[in-house]
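--- STAGE predict ---
source: upstream dedup step, 1 unique chain passed
mode: sequence only
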Amino acid sequence: MSADSESLLTRYQVARQIALEAGDLTLTHFRTSGLQVERKADDSPVTVADREAETLLRERIAEHFPEDGIVGEEYPERIGTTGYRWILDPIDGTKSFVSGVPLYGTLIGVTLDEEPQIGVINVPALNELVYAAIGQGAWCVSGGQPPVACKVSTQANLRDGIFLTTDIDSFSQRGGLPVFETLEKRSRMTRTWGDCYGYVLVATGRAEVMVDPALNVWDAAALLPILQESGGTFTDWRGNATIDGGDGVATNQLVLQEVLEITRQT
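--- STAGE serialize ---
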């Protein structure tokens, strides 16, 4: 094993460990009375749980890898010198979190020289952890059971598949409502089991496609390694495999071209 692969493996282990730790922290605030919800400049909600969880993640990363860069949703970027960059979303799905809905998660992505290498999604309220590193496969730990390999579904057509999204109104906001309507019409079932959990469902073979009209890099960074290592795809609406596209399409690979024919219309 080369020094580079050892460095990556160490970060992979730490990423899983601290995702669990941050998830546990969020649970101390989940479904508690008196939780204060603030509004950020973009009108999205934020709570003390978001800030505390990101602070914890940043502290743990600094302890282990003080020269790595860090990008997070709640605090300013820290520039690193190693080529590694940690990309953090302490609570992906804050609207679900503040509503007492368990479909939220802690996301950690790690890039090396801007290339995604590691992805971790912890869904603490469901006791479900999904993680991957490029070349290492994707894995799911659910309910304290041993890890099982993530595999996307084998449905080859949208008409037999489940289409997921986070928020229907977000299609309208970018002038893409026809995209949603076409995907809904062509799919067997449409549900808003959204935010990171929709991507977990695609990676574990429980849905065929997840489409979001707007994603920040901290929403997307963990997703690409997990979807690719599960046998699926994560791209932007134009079909580029990137975490910086500003939107997202996750598929089981078999329906990718059918979905892109629709999303590329916008």
